[in-house]
Amino acid sequence: MYLMTRLIKATGVKMVLSGEGADEVFGGYLYFHKAPNAKEFHEECVRKIDQLHMFDCLRANKSMCAFGVEARVPFLDREFLEVAMNIDPELKMIGRGGRTMEKQILRAAFDTPEDPYLPDSVLWRQKEQFSD
Fold first, then answer.
1. What is the DSSP letter of 131?
2. How far apart are CA 49 and CA 25, in angstroms?
3. In the beta sheet, which residues pair with residue 15?
4. CA-CA distance, 97 to 74, in Å (whole number)?
5. DSSP 14
6. Which sequence spans correspond to the domains of the chain?
7. Is the N or the C terminus of the chain less surrounded, counting Cβ atoms within 10 Å?
8. Over its length of 132 residues, how does the chain's per-residue pLDDT go in tens digits?
């Protein structure tokens, strides 16, 4: 993230939207596939969100501040979290109701064929691990 932020700064960008929180809210990590039921899936989401500030957010903030880039985290907005965490966890789980991808409910929200926000090649691509 540090190197990415350095590149962002070099392009003159002063503010970015960051995806911090999306994996935690929508069960996007690959191990969420193994959740035995909706209750445990939801409990793990809550646990990950509760710990997010100690790891991912702290790392992102330090990297961004080092180069004077401001990061906004829309998936951690209080109102967004209230809505997203009250979605039936069953609807977020892979392998239930025809869902075959992580964060499928979130991807579907951006899938607007009449006015595409993202190309399908980005919207529906397989998740890849990103780390520092």
1. -
2. 7
3. 70
4. 27
5. -
6. 2-98
7. C
8. 889 999 999 999 999 999 999 999 999 998 999 999 999 999 999 999 999 988 888 888 999 999 999 999 999 999 999 999 999 999 999 887 777 889 999 999 999 989 888 999 999 998 877 664
